[in-house]
C-alpha cells in the first residue's frame, strides 16, 4: 500500500547495510563488557553467566518508509515515523551454571516515532532525541539451547509475551526513551508531556454479526460476542452477551490519549468459546477525527468479516485547567485526570524494623545471616493508588535514595474527596518502608492545580521524603463547530494490516501502517474545526494553554501563518461523489505538540487599526479595514498575560453575503495550533461585541520578548471562495507597561 506522505528511503537502507558489521562489533563489545557484569550482579544464581557466542548476523534492519512532520508541529522540533522491519539471523548464546540458552533469529516490526527537540542554534543543533513505539511492536524470537525447551508451545508463548511486555514497559507509549545530546539539557518535560486528551468510548450495541458457533458444519447455536477495546498498551474487555448476534452492551470505557495523530482506537469482536475464541470482525477509529468532531455517534461497518455493524458513541475530552469543570458526574464517570510524576525518594530506612513511626524498633534479630541481609540497602518500588486503581513503579535495587523517573495517570471521579495513596515497599522482604497520603483537594488550592514538592513519609524515618509532581486537569467536552462537516462514520480507517503469508517456512510481513491523514491540496478550502462558544468569556476564563490541544486552523488557514490569504483559490478541482459528507482531513492537524507539564508556568485592552498591509485583497491599497478594541495587562499573581477582546467597529465586508467575524490570537513567535486563542463567531455584523478574556501563562520576562498577533476573520461556509481574513494587527509587548495595562482602539 503506497501512501503519498510516506517516503521510501532506499539510500538510508544502503547506509545501514554498509554500517551493520561495525554496529555488530560495537554491540558484541557492549554485551561482554557492560551487559555481562550487570547480569552477574543481579543475583547469586547468575554469577556464572557468560556469553559464549555473540553474532549479529548478515541481515540488518530495514526501514520500509519514513513520514516526516515539520509544518504541523512546533517550529523547534522535527518528528519522524519510521516503519521498521527486522528479520534477523543474529545468534546469541549464554551459559548459566550447566544450562545453555540462546536466541537464533529475531523478527520485529512496528512504527517507531523519533522526535528531535528542541532544535538549537549551536552544535549539536538538536537538544535531545525521544524514541517510542506508537503501538506494541510485533515480535517473534527463535529460541535455542536448553534442548529447545522454550519451543514447547505453552512456554514459547509465555516467554514471547513476557519479552513483549518488557519492551512495552520501556518503549511503547506512554513510555519514552529520551537521550540528551547537549550537556545540562533538562529532559523531564520531553519525557513526560501532558496527555493530549481523553477518549470516552460508549460501547452500545452491534447487529448482524457473523454466526460462529457451529459443529461439523451444522449450526449449533448463536454466538456469544464480547469486545476488546485498545488504545496503545491499554486494553479493556466488555462483558459477554450470550447467544445473540445483535448484542446490546451499553458499557463505557475511558482511555488517555498521548499522541494524536499516531494513536487510534482498535475494537475487536470475538465469540467466546470453551476452547478458542473465534474472531468476528474489527474496527480501527481515527482519533484525529474524533478530536475534531468532539462527539461521534455512528454505526460503523466491521472489517475483516462478511457482515456486522457496531454502534459506538465517542466523546473527546479536553484537559483544561478550570476548577469550575470539576463538578461530580452523576453517572459516575470521570471528571478529571491526575498525572503523577514520580521522581525519587530520600533517606529510606534499610528495613521496617529500623524505624517505626520515628522510634527505634525493639525487635531482636538472633539469626546472624538474616541480620546481614537486613543491613543491605533496600530494593524499593512504589504502589500508587487512587480509588480502586493501583499502579506499580519499577524497582530500584540497593539504594536508600532511589530514583524512579516515571509518570502515571489516574482517572478521578471526585477531586474534592479522593486521595492519592503512596506506599514504598522493599522487594526483598515485602515490607513497607514508608507511606504517604495526598488529598486531591490540596491541588485545588493552587491556581494551576499543580503540586511539585517533597512529601514527608509516614511510618518511616523522620527525614525520609518522596519527591513527586502532581498535576490535576478537568475533563471537558467542548461544543463542536457547527460549520465543520463531521467525519462521522468515515472516522474508521482501513489497514494496511499486518499480513503473514506462510509458504513453507517463509514468512513475509507487510509493513505496518504509519498513522496517516489523507493529503489535501493547499488550494482547497477546509472548514474551521474550532468549537463555537455562544456564551461570553466565562467559558474561556482561566483557560490554561497547557491544557488540551485546541484543534488547529485547517488548511484554509495555512497561508494565514505566513500572513497572506489568496482569495483567488477556487474550490477543490474534483470532489468525489458523496464528498460533502467526507471531508479530507487537513494536513495541518497531522501533528500536535503536547504541552509539557514541567513547563507549566491577566488581560487589559488596546484598540488598534486593522491594516491591509499583509493581506492580498482586491484593491491592494493601504486602507484601514476597521478597528479592534483590546485590553491587555499582566496579572502578576497568576503569572499570566490577560487579553480581553472587547469588540470591533467599521469592518470592511468581504462579500455581499455579509460577514460572521471572530478574532484569532497568537503570542508570537509561538504559532502552535495548541496555543491559539479564538473568540466566538458573531453573525452578520460589521461591529461585533465580544468581551471575551484569554490568558497566556508565561513569565513577565518572557512576555516582554513576545508580540501579540491578532487577526479578525470571517467564518465562511465550507468550500467558499470568500476572503477569510478581514484584517490583522501586531502589538510589540516590549514597548508596553503591562503591569499597569492599557486599553484602546
TrEMBL record:
<keyword id="KW-0445">Lipid transport</keyword>
<dbReference type="Pfam" id="PF17047">
    <property type="entry name" value="SMP_LBD"/>
</dbReference>
<keyword id="KW-0813">Transport</keyword>
<dbReference type="GO" id="GO:0005509">
    <property type="term" value="F:calcium ion binding"/>
</dbReference>
<dbReference type="InterPro" id="IPR031468">
    <property type="entry name" value="SMP_LBD"/>
</dbReference>
<keyword id="KW-0677">Repeat</keyword>
<dbReference type="InterPro" id="IPR037733">
    <property type="entry name" value="Ext_Synaptotagmin_C2A"/>
</dbReference>
<feature type="domain" description="SMP-LTD">
    <location>
        <begin position="5"/>
        <end position="182"/>
    </location>
</feature>
<keyword id="KW-0446">Lipid-binding</keyword>
<feature type="compositionally biased region" description="Basic and acidic residues">
    <location>
        <begin position="530"/>
        <end position="544"/>
    </location>
</feature>
<dbReference type="InterPro" id="IPR037752">
    <property type="entry name" value="C2C_KIAA1228"/>
</dbReference>
<dbReference type="GO" id="GO:0031210">
    <property type="term" value="F:phosphatidylcholine binding"/>
</dbReference>
<dbReference type="GO" id="GO:0035091">
    <property type="term" value="F:phosphatidylinositol binding"/>
</dbReference>
<dbReference type="GO" id="GO:0005886">
    <property type="term" value="C:plasma membrane"/>
</dbReference>
<keyword id="KW-0479">Metal-binding</keyword>
<feature type="region of interest" description="Disordered">
    <location>
        <begin position="502"/>
        <end position="579"/>
    </location>
</feature>
<dbReference type="GO" id="GO:0006869">
    <property type="term" value="P:lipid transport"/>
</dbReference>
<dbReference type="GO" id="GO:0005789">
    <property type="term" value="C:endoplasmic reticulum membrane"/>
</dbReference>
<keyword id="KW-0106">Calcium</keyword>
<feature type="domain" description="C2">
    <location>
        <begin position="173"/>
        <end position="300"/>
    </location>
</feature>
<keyword id="KW-0472">Membrane</keyword>
<keyword id="KW-0812">Transmembrane</keyword>
<keyword id="KW-1003">Cell membrane</keyword>
<keyword id="KW-1133">Transmembrane helix</keyword>
<dbReference type="InterPro" id="IPR037749">
    <property type="entry name" value="Ext_Synaptotagmin_C2B"/>
</dbReference>
<comment type="similarity">
    <text>Belongs to the extended synaptotagmin family.</text>
</comment>
<feature type="domain" description="C2">
    <location>
        <begin position="318"/>
        <end position="459"/>
    </location>
</feature>
<dbReference type="InterPro" id="IPR039010">
    <property type="entry name" value="Synaptotagmin_SMP"/>
</dbReference>
<dbReference type="GO" id="GO:0005544">
    <property type="term" value="F:calcium-dependent phospholipid binding"/>
</dbReference>
<dbReference type="Pfam" id="PF00168">
    <property type="entry name" value="C2"/>
</dbReference>
<dbReference type="InterPro" id="IPR051634">
    <property type="entry name" value="Extended_Synaptotagmin"/>
</dbReference>
<dbReference type="InterPro" id="IPR000008">
    <property type="entry name" value="C2_dom"/>
</dbReference>
<protein>
    <recommendedName>
        <fullName>Extended synaptotagmin-3</fullName>
    </recommendedName>
</protein>
<dbReference type="GO" id="GO:0061817">
    <property type="term" value="P:endoplasmic reticulum-plasma membrane tethering"/>
</dbReference>
<keyword id="KW-0256">Endoplasmic reticulum</keyword>
<dbReference type="GO" id="GO:0008429">
    <property type="term" value="F:phosphatidylethanolamine binding"/>
</dbReference>
<dbReference type="InterPro" id="IPR035892">
    <property type="entry name" value="C2_domain_sf"/>
</dbReference>
<feature type="domain" description="C2">
    <location>
        <begin position="624"/>
        <end position="745"/>
    </location>
</feature>
Amino acid at each position: 500500500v503506497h501512501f503519498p506522505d510516506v517516503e521510501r528511503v532506499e539510500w538510508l537502507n544502503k547506509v545501514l547495510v554498509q554500517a551493520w558489521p561495525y554496529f555488530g562489533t560495537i554491540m558484541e563489545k557492549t554485551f561482554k563488557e557492560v551487559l555481562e557484569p550487570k547480569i552477574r550482579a543481579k543475583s547469586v544464581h547468575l554469577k556464572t553467566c557468560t556469553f559464549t557466542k555473540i553474532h549479529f548476523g548478515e541481515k540488518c534492519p530495514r526501514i520500509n518508509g519514513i513520514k516526516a512532520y515539520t509544518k504541523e508541529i512546533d517550529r523547534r522540533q522535527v518528528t519522524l515515523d519510521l516503519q521498521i522491519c527486522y528479520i534477523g539471523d543474529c545468534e546469541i548464546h549464554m551459559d548459566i551454571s550447566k544450562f545453555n540458552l540462546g536466541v537464533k533469529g529475531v523478527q520485529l516490526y512496528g512504527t517507531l516515532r523519533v522526535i528531535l527537540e528542541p532544535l538549537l542554534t549551536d552544535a549539536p543543533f538538536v537538544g535531545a532525541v525521544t524514541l517510542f513505539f506508537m503501538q506494541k511492536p510485533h515480535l517473534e524470537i527463535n529460541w535455542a539451547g536448553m534442548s529447545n525447551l522454550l519451543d514447547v508451545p505453552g512456554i514459547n508463548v509465555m516467554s514471547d509475551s513476557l519479552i513483549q511486555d518488557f519492551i512495552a514497559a520501556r518503549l511503547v507509549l506512554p513510555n519514552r526513551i529520551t537521550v540528551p545530546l547537549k550537556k545540562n539539557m533538562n529532559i523531564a518535560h520531553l519525557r513526560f508531556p501532558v496527555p493530549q486528551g481523553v477518549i470516552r468510548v460508549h460501547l452500545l450495541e452491534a447487529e448482524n454479526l457473523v454466526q460462529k458457533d457451529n459443529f461439523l458444519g451444522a449450526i449449533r447455536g448463536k454466538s456469544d460476542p464480547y469486545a476488546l477495546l485498545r488504545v496503545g498498551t491499554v486494553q479493556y474487555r466488555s462483558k459477554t452477551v450470550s447467544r445473540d448476534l445483535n448484542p446490546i452492551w451499553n458499557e463505557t470505557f475511558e482511555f488517555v490519549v498521548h499522541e494524536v495523530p499516531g494513536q487510534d482506537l482498535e475494537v475487536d469482536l470475538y465469540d467466546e468459546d470453551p476452547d478458542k475464541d473465534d474472531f468476528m470482525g474489527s474496527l480501527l477509529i481515527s482519533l484525529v477525527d474524533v478530536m475534531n468532531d468532539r462527539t461521534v455517534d455512528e454505526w460503523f461497518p466491521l472489517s475483516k468479516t462478511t457482515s456486522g455493524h457496531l454502534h459506538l458513541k465517542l466523546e473527546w475530552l479536553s484537559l483544561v485547567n478550570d476548577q469550575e469543570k470539576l463538578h461530580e458526574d452523576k453517572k459516575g464517570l470521570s471528571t478529571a485526570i491526575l498525572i503523577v510524576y514520580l521522581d525519587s525518594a530520600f533517606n529510606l530506612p534499610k528495613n521496617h524494623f529500623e524505624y517505626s513511626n520515628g522510634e527505634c524498633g525493639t525487635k531482636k534479630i538472633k539469626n546472624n545471616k538474616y541480620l546481614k541481609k537486613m543491613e543491605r540497602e533496600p530494593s524499593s518500588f512504589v504502589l500508587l493508588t487512587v480509588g480502586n486503581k493501583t499502579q506499580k513503579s519499577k524497582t530500584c535495587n540497593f539504594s536508600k535514595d532511589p530514583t524512579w523517573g516515571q509518570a502515571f495517570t489516574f482517572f478521578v471521579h471526585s477531586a474534592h474527596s479522593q486521595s492519592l495513596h503512596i506506599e514504598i515497599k522493599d522487594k526483598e522482604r515485602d515490607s513497607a518502608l514508608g507511606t504517604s497520603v495526598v488529598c486531591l483537594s490540596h491541588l485545588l488550592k493552587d491556581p494551576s492545580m499543580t503540586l511539585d514538592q517533597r512529601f514527608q513519609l509516614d511510618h518511616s524515618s523522620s527525614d525520609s521524603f518522596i519527591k513527586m509532581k502532581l498535576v490535576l486537569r478537568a475533563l471537558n467536552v467542548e461544543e463542536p463547530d457547527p460549520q465543520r462537516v463531521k467525519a462521522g462514520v468515515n472516522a474508521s480507517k482501513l489497514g494496511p494490516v499486518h499480513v503473514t503469508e506462510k509458504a513453507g517456512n517463509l514468512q513475509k510481513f507487510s509493513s505496518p501502517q504509519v498513522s496517516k491523514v489523507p493529503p489535501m491540496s493547499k488550494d482547497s478550502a477546509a472548514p474551521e474545526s474550532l468549537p463555537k462558544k455562544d456564551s461570553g468569556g466565562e467559558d474561556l476564563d482561566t483557560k490554561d494553554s497547557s491544557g488540551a490541544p485546541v484543534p488547529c486552523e485547517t488548511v484554509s488557514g495555512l497561508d494565514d501563518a505566513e500572513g497572506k490569504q489568496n482569495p483567488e483559490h477556487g474550490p477543490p478541482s474534483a470532489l468525489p461523489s458523496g464528498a460533502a459528507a467526507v471531508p479530507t482531513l487537513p494536513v495541518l492537524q497531522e501533528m500536535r505538540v503536547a504541552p509539557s507539564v514541567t513547563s507549566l508556568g491577566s488581560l487589559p485592552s488596546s484598540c488598534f487599526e486593522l491594516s491591509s498591509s499583509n493581506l492580498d485583497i482586491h484593491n491592494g491599497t493601504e486602507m484601514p479595514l476597521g478597528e479592534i478594541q483590546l485590553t491587555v495587562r499582566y496579572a502578576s499573581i497568576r503569572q499570566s498575560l490577560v487579553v480581553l477582546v472587547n469588540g470591533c467597529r467599521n469592518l470592511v465586508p468581504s462579500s455581499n453575503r455579509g460577514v460572521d467575524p471572530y478574532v484569532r490570537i497568537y503570542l508570537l513567535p509561538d504559532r502552535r495550533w495548541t496555543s491559539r486563542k479564538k473568540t466566538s463567531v458573531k453573525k452578520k455584523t460589521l461591529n461585533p461585541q465580544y468581551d471575551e478574556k484569554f490568558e497566556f501563562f508565561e513569565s513577565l520576562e518572557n512576555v516582554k520578548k513576545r508580540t501579540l498577533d491578532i487577526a479578525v476573520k470571517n467564518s465562511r461556509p465550507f468550500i467558499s471562495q470568500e476572503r477569510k481574513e478581514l484584517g490583522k494587527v501586531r502589538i510589540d509587548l516590549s514597548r508596553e507597561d503591562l503591569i499597569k495595562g492599557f486599553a484602546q482602539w
